Fold:
Amino acid sequence: MEIEPWELYIRGTALHVFVRTYEPWLWPLCETLHYLGLSILLGTVGLFDLRVLGMAKGITFAALHRLIPFGIGGYVVNILTGIVFFFGHPDQYFYNNAFRFKVIFMALAGLNVFAFYATSAFRELRALGPDAEPRPSAKMIAGASLSLWVAVLICGRLLTFFRPPFFH
Structure:
């Protein structure tokens, strides 16, 4: 099988050479950081989403929302380590359907975040008291968020099980 031009470009970058040179220690370090970033992301965003869906009543939405910057930090760590993984072995990711679905779910989760902040859902939640019930539209957004991030997690785990049958 012939190597595609985009893959030749990736394999010619300094990041690819760096990852392949230091892979024995760099890969486990990035895997650990990726796991920690995902834990922080799902822990903060998931907790917020579960509160919107009706769990943990007694905690204000504003109090939980203060944790979201930690989730954003976890997301940034995951994007950076994900880039390292992709540049290290582009053929294991680009041709992998689990990776493609993961990217789709991440994009949909991003659109969902946009919908949350662009609509009145966030402003209304921020004003609610600790025992108040959110509107159905906010619950739909939170349910979609939780579902999409769990789908990202599942697809990430499936990456190793659905590797392409070939490697360059």
